[in-house]
Design a protein that fits this description.
The complex is a heterodimer of chains A (369) and B (308).
Chain A (H helix, E strand, L loop, with lengths): L2 H16 L5 H6 L3 E6 L9 H13 L4 E6 L6 H12 L5 E4 L5 H8 L6 E5 L12 E6 L2 H14 L4 E6 L4 H15 L6 E6 L6 H13 L4 E5 L4 H9 L3 E6 L10 E7 L1 H13 L7 E4 L6 E3 L8 H15 L6 E2 L2 E2 L5 E3 L4 E2 L16 E2 L5
Parallel strand pairs in A: 1-2, 1-3, 3-4, 4-5, 5-11, 6-7, 6-8, 7-17, 8-9, 9-10
Antiparallel strand pairs in A: 10-12, 13-16, 14-15
Helix pairs in contact in A: 3-10, 4-5, 6-7, 6-11, 8-9
Chain B lengths: L2 H36 L7 H19 L2 H24 L5 H20 L12 E3 L7 H6 L1 E3 H18 L2 H11 L1 H6 L4 H25 L13 H11 L4 H23 L6 H5 L1 H13 L11 H6 L1
Antiparallel strand pairs in B: 1-2
Helix pairs in contact in B: 1-6, 1-9, 1-10, 1-11, 2-3, 2-4, 2-9, 2-10, 3-4, 3-9, 6-7, 6-11, 10-11, 10-13
Classes of the chains: A alpha/beta (369), B mainly alpha (308).
Chain lengths: 369, 308
């Protein structure tokens, strides 16, 4: 135990003793499922971290679950300190370090605490390389993004869409491509401009990108950054439409909000809690999309046409029964090369899609800097 | 007008609009720092004032419903942080740079702590004046949506220059900044002049922050400032401690920051990391170009050359 962890321990014992809870609460709490959540940003950011926090809040309502969390934990040695204090002081049985960059730090301490399950949100877990008490969970959020693309394709008058993204990693590129393929399934001439801001939270650059895009005649904006608030508000201010991401941003843009892609972590976290309660082994890999209830679309905005709603609902039904395949050849990238030949198709679960490094035809942008 | 034609002119408008939108916080912070430095103190803590001002302005605007009350609160908080800086720096053997860094961390930390409840709500924004009504191009009209704070800043700059050049108080500030001994010999209260200059400077930086949260990008969160407060300090050196040149410098930096997103949105997709880094590259280039071991920079307050 590090000196600092030890001191923290002393301090918390002191506090608990003073509150007269020490011992008593321990005995009761023994039956509870104890879950720790760690976020990289503020838990009320209208975005990625809020989505996880909402999931945590939902499970915390159960009286047999004790959930605790810490926000603004950087992807450095800090997260190890947080995880160790959750294990040693709060007695966490399962930890959810939710940020992509936490993974290497999880590996550093996972073997030291074999009884604790470390579940990472993201796609980095590899059963052949990593310890048994590590796992990963993630959702195919590109499915609701595809539906957003359909709605955007119906609603856009100019046929020009805009995507404000943080950095060109596979998960981001897959969302952009799904949005474009969705929109092109409605309007084959639609295009989508992409701006990479270079960081997950850079409000000035996000607002600047949104303004520039609107100046170019783009009339539907969406984004993949930590907090879509600025993009959605700027779109509303400039009188264009927008699709949300991570959580529901409808209240920020009452006029222009179309729909959005949302996480539904409460379902995932409740499932995990139930597994622990029943003494089941936790699977190392949990994946799922609309069908599994891990992701969903935001309710349609008031301006969305009946035709667009009907189309999107039809495709949603196909996602639900598992017959929908987004990556069905022939698909060209935006340089004209054929990436997926005719006749070939990649289902949602295909691992090949998780290493995407190309942008589909119609997207104006490049993955290289 | 079709898409391709809008493209190039679009960049121009975007950079022009961006220069004004992104440049305004730079303008206020640099004017504030200009005043402080002219009195012979460097306040590196203005980043803290900026973030604190942004948070308070947003919070007060949300609670009271009046954005202007928010701007006032930001100015008040900024001047308080300036007061702390000035009081600490008056003590013997206290380094103003170190105090500035401490206050920067203090200000941002406190703002993050108090700002939690204001990340989600939407507060009333500052109004904008449309100067582009004569044009039928939406891009130009958008670029000419000018915020009142920018206009205040534009008026403030020559006023400050006049203040330094002609007014009695301005001359006192300059004298204190040029030579402490001479100012003492003249019977000026050196510490008081510096205290007031730092407070007013801090208040201006706070107002700069209120522009960020109440107009552009117009929301409060912890990643709101990407170091504008720190860059503005470098900008003062670039502007040679001249308030009017601070305006040009701020516009230049604002335009540079708008260049990256503007180019990408018209489809110039190569080198965006490079374009995004434009303001920082500019800062570095300026620092290198203007530094010299042999002579003091033209316009630099005299006391700085003694300490270094």
């Amino acid at each position: 135990m590090k000196r600092r962890t030890f001191l923290k321990g002393l301090a918390s014992v002191g506090v608990m003793g003073a509150m007269g809870e020490f011992g008593i609460s321990g005995a009761f709490a023994a039956d509870k499922v104890k879950m720790g959540f760690i976020y990289v940003g503020p838990r009320d950011d209208y975005g990625y971290n809020q989505a996880h926090f909402e999931g945590k809040s939902a499970v915390a309502k159960q009286d047999w679950i004790k959930a605790f969390d810490e926000e603004n934990v950087p992807e450095t040695i800090e997260v190890i300190k947080t995880m160790e204090s959750m294990i040693n002081l709060d007695g966490a049985q399962v930890l959810f370090p939710t940020s992509f960059g936490y993974f290497p730090h999880i590996l550093k301490i996972a073997e030291k605490y074999p009884k604790v399950m470390f579940l990472h949100c993201g796609g980095l877990y590899d059963a052949s390389k990593h310890p048994k008490n590590v796992g990963s969970y993630f959702g195919y959020i590109d499915e609701p993004v595809y539906l957003s693309g359909i709605v955007a394709g119906h609603m856009s008058k100019t046929g020009k869409l805009g995507y404000i993204a943080a950095i060109p990693i596979p998960q981001v590129l897959r969302n952009i491509n799904n949005f474009m393929i969705g929109a092109r399934s409605v309007n084959p001439k639609a295009t989508c401009n992409v701006v990479f801001t270079g960081g997950w939270a850079n409000p000035v650059k996000e607002a600047e990108s949104a303004n520039s895009m609107v100046d170019q005649g783009i009339d539907v904006l969406t984004c993949h950054v930590d907090s879509p608030k600025v993009v959605v508000e700027t779109a509303e201010k400039r009188g264009v439409m927008c699709c949300g991401y991570h959580t529901n941003q409808a209240t920020l843009a009452p006029k222009g909000f179309l729909t959005g892609a949302e996480w539904n972590w409460s379902k995932v976290y409740a499932d995990y809690a139930a597994m622990i309660k029943d003494g089941k082994t936790i699977p190392n890999l949990v994946r799922g999309g609309i069908k599994e209830g891990i992701v969903k679309s935001s309710p349609y905005g008031a301006s969305v046409s009946e035709k667009a709603k009907k189309h999107a609902d039809e495709v949603r039904a196909k996602f639900m029964d598992g017959s929908m395949v987004v990556y069905k050849g022939p698909i060209k990238d935006n340089k004209g090369a054929i990436v997926i030949p005719a006749g070939k198709e990649y289902k949602q679960t295909d691992i090949w899609l998780e290493s995407m490094d190309w942008l589909v035809e119609g997207v104006v942008g490049t993955t290289k800097s | 007008m079709n898409g391709e034609e809008v493209g190039l002119i679009g960049i121009l408008f975007a950079v022009l609009g961006g220069a004004i939108r992104v440049g305004t916080p730079f303008l206020f912070v640099s004017l504030g720092e200009c005043l402080t430095e002219r009195s012979g103190r460097i306040n590196l803590g203005l980043e803290g004032n900026l973030v604190m001002g942004a948070m308070l302005a947003y919070g007060i605007s949300y609670i009271s419903g009046s954005p202007w009350l928010g701007v006032l609160a930001a100015a008040g908080a900024g001047s308080l942080l300036g007061l702390v800086h000035a009081l600490l720096c008056q003590q013997p053997r206290v380094n103003d740079i170190a105090v500035g860094i401490a206050l920067m961390l203090f200000g941002t930390g406190l703002a993050f702590f108090w700002g939690k409840p204001f990340i989600q709500p939407t507060a009333p924004h500052l109004p904008a004046i449309s100067l582009g009504g004569w044009s039928d191009m939406p891009a130009l009209r958008a670029a000419l949506e000018i915020n009142v704070l920018f206009i205040i800043g534009i008026i403030l700059a020559p006023a400050l220059a006049w203040f330094f050049r002609t007014s009695r108080w301005g001359l006192n500030v300059r004298c204190v900044g040029e030579s402490t001994e001479a100012a003492l010999a003249m019977g000026l209260k050196v510490n008081r002049v510096r205290l007031l200059s730092t407070m007013v400077g801090g208040a201006l930086a706070g107002v700069g922050g209120s522009f960020l949260s109440l107009y552009y990008p117009g929301s409060w969160n912890e990643g709101l400032s990407s170091g504008q407060g720190l860059m503005a300090v470098a900008l003062v050196i670039f502007a040679r401690w001249d308030p009017v040149k601070c305006v040009y410098a701020s516009l230049l930096f604002g335009g540079a920051a708008a260049l990256g997103p503007a180019l990408q949105s018209v489809g110039v997709t190569w080198g965006y990391y490079l374009f995004n880094a434009a303001p920082y590259v500019l800062t570095l280039a300026i620092m290198i170009a203007t530094s010299s071991a042999k002579r003091r920079l033209p316009g630099m307050p005299g006391v700085f050359s003694n300490v270094k």
